[in-house]
Write a structure and sequence with these properties.
Blueprint (H helix, E strand, L loop, with lengths): L11 E4 L7 H7 L4 E5 L2 H4 L2 H12 L3 E5 L8 H14 L3 E6 L1 H14 L24 E5 L11 E6 L4 E6 L7 E4 L9 H20 L5 H23 L4 H17 L6 H13 L3 H30 L5 H15 L16 H9 L13 H13 L8
Parallel strand pairs: 1-8, 2-3, 2-4, 4-5, 5-8
Antiparallel strand pairs: 6-7
Helix pairs in contact: 4-5, 6-7, 6-8, 6-10, 7-8, 9-10, 9-12, 10-11, 10-13, 12-13
């Protein structure tokens, strides 16, 4: 491993119950008087949302709301949001919601600052110059999984190509993040479970990524511990504030850590999500043990160290068993047919997965044939032979 790396730590974060009340003052302190609030229809209907809009207005901040966001944001959503921002004369963006609301809000900020097609900002390409400056973005997650609140990247679907594009620009990093666990109390148990497994996938893939980034390694390891100790509590005790806060922390930590690397879990998850509209966190959870088994020859020693730190006996085997037991306790399906994936789609999914920008960072080199083998195993529900 070459002892060289580029390291970044994210933005300012206000963490704790009730911290949402500080948002209007922080927007004013940033010198902003006109903002676009970006969210999805579900969040827009929650009681706290109306109270927040009223508080912003009372603070002298002219507020417009854009809530036409699909569960996976599409290019049309982003362009419509950018038009709404310009029509409002916006000076900043408040993005509220799960990964979709946050990614859409950040992407709208990018769209307001460039005349280029957004696909020009795909993570695999050299970052082009902007026409202007991306407006300051305030991120308020209402789930605990995606970690988009501390990231410089977004995921947007090209509906024509049925492909998820990962867009990247440093200015999309939010100016301020508020982690308020009270905003997650009303989440359905299955969403808490799926987003929590997304947070685990982020820390896991970051931890075993084969790059020199000891800061990310430490963050990822603590992120996994927080998931291990809090996810089931958050699912079973929905108003357990400590568990909810720790899961929000784990989500932000996972996304901070994965600046180091992601891998085949995400490479395979992206095309499944784009084609079959499967929830990203759920898809990651279903695929996780199969990718672990495939990567075993390259990550066994690192996973054994993680298992020891997490209090899991029997090294890699114990860690894999813990993942399987956690999935079962959360009612995560074991096979990808539960995601509506059909056998005739596997070849195309493998081709798209091997082209995903996360594939080169997987610790075990993966060919299209390897991706197909993982998908076939995930369809059949067998872990045998994947590490060969």
């Amino acid at each position: 491993m070459e002892l060289r790396g580029n390291w970044r730590i994210p933005t300012e974060i206000l963490a704790g119950p009730g911290r949402l009340a500080e948002l209007p003052g922080r927007v004013r302190a940033a010198g902003l008087s006109r903002v676009l609030v970006v969210t999805d229809p579900g969040v827009a209907g929650l009681p706290f949302f109306a109270s927040l809009i009223a508080a912003l207005e009372q603070a002298g901040i002219a507020t417009a709301v854009f809530k036409d966001v699909h569960p996976d944001p599409q290019l049309a959503d982003v362009l419509a949001g950018a038009a709404a921002y310009k029509a409002h004369g916006g000076e900043g963006i408040i993005a509220i919601g799960g990964g979709s609301g946050l990614d859409c809000g950040k992407s709208i900020g990018l769209a307001t600052a460039t005349s280029r097609p957004l696909w020009d900002f795909e993570i695999t390409l050299a970052t082009p110059a902007l026409d202007g400056t991306i407006p300051p973005i305030f991120a308020v997650p209402t789930t605990a999984g995606t970690g988009s609140e501390v990231g410089r990247a977004t995921v947007v679907i090209d509906t024509e190509k049925r492909r998820k594009f990962i867009l990247l620009h440093a200015q999309m990093l939010p100016h301020l993040v508020i982690l308020d666990p009270e905003l997650t109390y009303g989440l359905p148990a299955f969403i808490t479970a799926w987003t929590g497994m997304d947070a685990l996938a982020h820390s896991l893939e970051a931890y075993y990524g084969d790059f020199y980034h000891p800061i990310a390694d430490g963050i990822a390891l603590e992120g996994m511990r927080l998931v291990k100790e809090n996810l089931l509590l958050a699912v079973n005790e929905p108003r357990n504030t400590a568990a909810r806060m720790n899961m929000q922390a784990a989500a932000s930590m996972g996304a901070t850590a994965f600046q180091k690397a992601l891998g085949a879990i995400h490479s395979l998850s992206h095309p499944i999500g784009a084609r079959f509209h499967a929830h990203h966190g759920l898809t990651n959870a279903v695929l996780m043990p199969y990718v672990l088994a495939f990567n075993r020859p390259f990550i066994e020693a690192r996973i054994a160290r993680a298992a020891q730190a997490l209090g899991i006996a029997n090294g890699f085997d114990g860690f894999l068993s813990w993942v399987l037991e956690l999935r079962a306790a959360l009612n995560i399906p074991h096979t990808i047919d539960a995601l509506k994936v059909t056998p005739d789609a596997l070849e195309d999914l493998a081709a798209e997965a091997v082209a995903d920008p996360n594939t080169p960072d997987n610790p075990r080199p993966a060919t299209q044939a390897d991706m197909l083998r993982i998908l076939q195993a995930a369809m059949a529900g067998t872990l045998t032979g994947l590490g060969d």
